[in-house]
Amino acid sequence: MEQLLPRFLEYVGIDTQSDPYSKSTPSTEKQLKLAKKLVTELHTIGMEEVSIDANGYIMATLPSNMEKEVPTIGFIAHMDTTPDFTGKNVSPQIIKEYDGGDIVLNKGKEIVLSPDYFPELLQYKGQTLITTDGTTLLGADDKAGVAEIITAMEYLREHPEIKHGKIRVAFTPDEEIGRGAHKFDVKKFGAEWAYTIDGSQIGELEFENFNAASATIKIKGKSVHPGYAKDKMVNAIHIANQFLSLLPPNEVPEKTEGREGFFHVHKIKGEIEEAEIELIIRDHDAQHFEARKQLLKDIAGKLSDRFGDFIELNIENQYFNMREKVEPVFHIVEIAEEAMKSLDIEPILKPIRGGTDGSQLSFMGLPCPNIFAGGHNFHGKYEYVPLESMQKAVEVIVKICEFTAIQIK
Ligand SMILES: [Zn+2]
Fold it and tell me: Where among 278, 296, 319 does a domain terminate?
């Protein structure tokens, strides 16, 4: 367990920012730098079948130490950090015995991590916090997960008295740009189910996420001299405006929470001749999700009737709620819940207002709930992780291996 912190600090020191505009896998060469280090480390701690494929996906095996057949399970974390904020030259600060006060991240820039703004900090009073220096993100999302999985495997290697079945681990590139699962070889992984260690605060256990689609609405107009435009001009800007006015005004991210879905318009550009709207649809409920897509079609149809055939609507599904794939094998959530309870961790089961690699993997045949990695305030300079939460994540992984072997007949 002593290696957990040094490991984590070493990983966050390697810039692994992914790039949504790149077409290659991994999207950035630099992710391979961490990948190579992890391959070496997996060998060092005695893992078997260590492999890295042409796309940078790493897999390894901890062999079973039991006679009896038990299910092969897996643990997965991602190596990249978000393109939204720099992960270059990460210089972590370690705050021992956090006193519950303000943490000055950067004196010169007056950047302060304060419980006034982030009250969750107070639950970590007395613990060791790892923060940024205020100029970069930390990368606990998800290098905490990577360090925790490796440390748990090392722990199991060193404690053969803990009986477990065959354990598979995987580290993936490009999760932050939605492509972490795309080239994941589920068959090669060969686990009956798995867990991503990619959640936030201690206790999080997630098996529900949004159904997600994106939509583009292209509107063609007709420009005519405004003085002579009567019954001739078609102004694409006005049609775009009408389109937006027909969406439910309260079903937007800033007015919804829990299981409430939304439309989120994130881009609009327009001239008289042409306008374009980009939006995303999110909903946990499959029927509501379909109804939202239908609403867009209805609005496009209505406006086409009124203005002629000037509107082109294109909807693409992005990912689906994993709940339907996890519910039939719900014991995989229960094992994680029991693992947490046995360690005095209160499980926090809540629907994710987003997606995970696990949702895609679940639909690829590998049911895959998400477990906390311990960090807070992902994707920005206020990101931090309590060391104690990371240690608990390691213990949860170990317990899940142990309980799977005991409980499954
Ligand atoms: Zn993540």
Answer: 319
Q: Would you call 175 a catalytic residue per the annotation? A: yes
Quickly list H helices, 308-330.
323-326
Q: Is 309 a catalytic residue?
A: no
| Main-chain dihedrals φ then ψ at residue 43, nearest 5 degrees | -65, -45
Domain count, the chain: 2
Measure 200 CA to ligand 1 centroid, in angstroms.
9
* pLDDT tens track for 313-328: 999 998 999 999 999 9
Same domain, 356 and 311: no
What is the C-alpha radius of gyration for the chain, rounded to an integer number of angstroms? 24
Give me the torsion for CA of 161, 165, 171, 177, rounded to 10°.
-130
Residues 218 and 123 in one domain: no
Catalytic residue among 41, 80, 251, 383: 80
Indicate the helix (H) or strand (E) that contains 217.
strand 211-220
Residues 47 and 155 in one domain: yes
The DSSP secondary structure of 333-399, one letter per residue, reads: HHHHHHHHHHTT---EE---SS--HHHHHHHTT----EEE---BSTTSTT-EEEHHHHHHHHHHHHH
- For ligand 1, the distance from its centroid to the CA atom of residue 339, given in whole angstroms, is 22
CA of 331 from ligand 1 middle (Å) equals: 24
Q: Is the full-model pTM beyond 0.85?
A: yes
**102 appears as a binding residue in the annotation:** no
Please identify which of the residues 15, 19, 148, 175 carries the catalytic annotation.
175
pLDDT digits (tens, 9 = 90+) for 98-117: 999 999 999 999 999 999 99
CB atoms within 10 A of CB 355: 21
Query: By the 8 A CB rule, do 169 and 47 touch?
Result: yes
Q: Is 84 annotated as a binding residue?
A: no
